[in-house]
Amino acid sequence: MEAGHDTEKTPLPLALTRFQVSEEYGFLLPDPLTDLPAPYGPWMEIAHHLPQLIASHQLRSRVHQMPELSTRHLRGREELHLAHLVLSFITTGYVWQEGEEGTVKVLPQNLAVPFWGVSQALGLPPILSHVDFVLANWRRKNPKGNLDTIISLPGGESLRGFILVTLLVEKAAVPGIKAIVQAIRAIVQHDEETLHKALQELAEAIGNMSQALKRMHDYVDPAVFYTVIRIFLSGWKDNPAMPDGLIYEGVSEEPMAYSGGSAAQSTILHAFDEFLGIRHSEQSTAFLHRMRGYMPRPHRAFVDEIHRAPSLKQHVLSSGDTRLCAAFNRCIAALADFRSYHITIVTKYITIAAAKAKAGRAELGGGDGPSMAKPPSALENKGTGGSHIFTFLKSIRDTTREGMINA
User: Fold this and answer.
1) pTM: predicted TM-score of the whole model, two decimal places
2) Distance CA 91, CA 257 (A)
3) For 113-147, how does the pLDDT look when each residue is reduced to its tens digit (9 = 90+)?
């Protein structure tokens, strides 16, 4: 993704608040609501019991008994985000309750119509995505700030750990997001000292994201992730288990296909790539640009604004400043290292876990979730977003490294 050079269209200063990006929380929804207005009690009642309803194979029958509720009582962005979170979790549970071999072709109207309406209002697709799973799905358990999820799925503590570690990666990125804004301002003002400091802060933030990601090992059991959690992140696009997509009854008579939740839907790395002028392969770029459709509209606009800003790389090259060049390369190295570590995580939690599951050695401890009839295999070599995962991850890691400035 090449950085743009059209400075005339870039209103400065680039203010985070214009794009619903928080100074404290970045792309995370600040202090999300945890309950909807009273008329939506039937949704909340089901959502709060999803792990049990799925494990006992009762979710689908409960959904069929659910009243079709109008979305007209929802007010403001926070209520819409919570409604989308609740309906997306219920939907993914409904679709995958019986595993890959027991999928449905139709999402019932009493779920599909309100989910579609809320999705249209937010500019999000009607499926569980990174926004729902992580950005809007956190709350404080107590005044000390201990975190928990708002809505859960089968997977117990491993599911909770997976969501909250991903949230910590998002939180670690916040100083880097602010550094981009400062750096773009500094480029326009030819303030090399501020630019150098901003690049140092960006590299440090990316390093802290890698440290946060390492906590995955402490909180997420690979066997539980692969055999229980992963299927609920699967979508109905590029998925052999649902080759025709899903009919949203009352919305469309034709099936629709949407990708599952994926780290590629996080705005952070898109913003970093655009700012650093990273150019990925045509195939990877096409997939990443499609994933932008799963981000909140204001966050997409933020990435577009960075794309239109003056090129950092060209500025560093033309400055001839060795300090700036070194600081730029540190950012590239940190981002490549983060992507390498992500490959390490995927190897452990998908490739090795898949091999163990195949061999029948995967053991689910402590009743962490329902044991599917057999381990999921439809997306064995793919990410939940539908990409060929190792080809994609290695490609974007390598093209990141190629973004280095050769001194």
Assistant:
1) 0.91
2) 14
3) 999 999 999 999 999 999 999 999 999 988 777 99
Known binding-site residues for heme b equal 342
Question: What sign results for the dihedral spanned by CA atoms 204, 207, 212, 215?
Answer: negative
- CATH fit for domain 25-359+383-403, picks 3.40.50.920, 1.20.58.480, 1.10.10.10, 1.10.8.60: 1.20.58.480
The percent of residues above 70 in pLDDT, for the chain, comes to: 90
Give the pair of three-digit tokens for residue 66. 């659910």
Strand ranges inside 88-229, DSSP E: 106-107, 139-140, 147-148
**For residue 372, what pLDDT is reported?**
45
Q: At what angle do helices 312-319 and 322-346 cross, to 10 degrees?
A: 140
Helical axes 109-122 vs 76-96, angle rounded to 10°: 140
What's the confidence (pLDDT) of residue 378? Answer: 54
22: which strand partners? 26
pLDDT digits (tens, 9 = 90+) for 146-170: 999 999 999 999 999 999 999 999 9
3-state helix, strand, coil in the chain (%, to 5): 60, 5, 40
> Dihedral sign, CA of 48, 370, 119, 291?
positive
Binding residues: 342
Please count the residues of the chain. 407
Mean pLDDT of 269-277: 98
1 has a pLDDT exceeding 80: no
For residues 239-266, give the mean pLDDT. 96
Distance CA 95, CA 1 (A): 34
Boundaries of every domain in the chain: 25-359+383-403
- The verdict on whether omega for the bond into residue 67 sits within 30 degrees of 0, i.e. cis, is no
CB-based burial label for 185 (10 Å; 0-12, 13-18, 19+): middle
Alpha-carbon span 38 to 232, nearest angstrom:
28
Assess whether pLDDT exceeds 90 at residue 12. no
Q: CA-to-CA distance for 267 and 97, rounded, in angstroms?
A: 30
What is the phi-psi region of residue 37: left when phi exceeds 0, alpha when psi lies from -120 to 50, beta otherwise? Answer: beta
Q: What is the pLDDT of residue 141?
A: 86
DSSP string, 327-371: HHHHHHHHHHHHHHHHHHHHIIIIIIHHHHHHTT-----TT-SPP
